Amino acid sequence: MHVVELTEPGTFEHRERQRPAPGPNEVLVEIRHVGICGSDVHYYEHGRIGDYVVSDPLVLGHESAGVVAEVGSDGSHLEPGDRVALEPGVPCGECAQCRAGTYNLCPDVEFMATPPDDGAFAEYVAWDTDFAYRLPDGVSTRAGALCEPLSVALHATRRAAIDLGETVLVTGAGPIGAMVLKAARAAGAGDIVVSDVVPSKLERAREMGATETVNVSERSLEAAIDDFTRGDGVDVVVEASGATPAIAATTTVVRRGGTVVCIGLSGDNEIPIATNELVDKELDFRGSFRFRNTYPDAISLLERGVIDVEDVIDFEMSMADLTAAFERAQEPDVVKGMVAVGSE
Ligand SMILES: NC(=O)c1ccc[n+]([C@@H]2O[C@H](COP(=O)([O-])OP(=O)(O)OC[C@H]3O[C@@H](n4cnc5c(N)ncnc54)[C@H](O)[C@@H]3O)[C@@H](O)[C@H]2O)c1
Ligand SMILES: C[C@@H](O)[C@H](N)C(=O)O
Asked: For the region Disordered, what residue ranges are annotated (predicted)?
């Protein structure tokens, strides 16, 4: 089968590999669509993310969907021909976190496209049947692939426990911020303010349902939120930029008794946070890491048309043009690039 390997930073090589046979509890999936995530681009550019270093050729891509080609010997809830979205992290199932149900925190998770585990820029992937979810007729594999970033947003929205009518600030209008905006809207948020530094992304956020946008390269976030909420602060902040100033501002722009959920990962591991504000305002300040038990809900939201992900996608290119797709994905206006591995 055909795969694309990242062999060194900035270099993809198209190679042939043995088509995998599904293990007893696996399905073999013919991949159709894979979204390009910021972490794929980071590995492509730098060959590492923190301690995760690409030392052997690595297949990138963890936002994937395709068609079941074969079922392993133990059988499956799926049949050949079923279209599926693949949840990219398969946890060990045995550790304390897995037993507690917080399987997104499993220290031994195998996560696609994270060294040493290969991802989905490949014709076929053999994957645990429990982490392959059937897509209904109305949901394409192109949309199904985006169950992954949508899942990041659904998990963060749950961590934020957004209540009906609450005012939410989403910092960052990249793919994760856009998905959070959609998830917060679906969760019944009232006003949703989105901040970014790229005007076209803020325009897109308005088209996707943001009530107000703030270009923080022109105006301070603190002043804008102060004006918008008449000094009260927002009920909930979901930080989805990873930008140090945005993270540092979260405790100031949230109201007393409000909630901050951080998704974004900063290049600075340590950021000054006004800890007295945490206490004095009695804030809930929480992290949100990947997702758990979100795929069925993501698929249901797509099927019922509650959330549309098509408007997040800027372009679709074929896997034959993966280098060009990764170069284009880095343009500042681009929110999401999609790669077609086969045709639906
Ligand atoms: N916690 C998790 O499980 C998880 C999962 C996926 C991504 N992430 C992280 O979430 C963040 C967002 O992911 P993404 O793929 O959307 O990234 P992205 O880089 O595509 O988007 C970030 C956006 O933030 C904007 N931005 C830059 N400075 C800003 C500022 N000061 N205020 C507001 N916006 C600003 C950028 O212009 C960009 O549009 C990244 O840090 C990523 O590493 C975390
Ligand atoms: C969750 C996923 O999208 C993220 N890029 C990660 O590797 O954790």
From this structure: 1-24
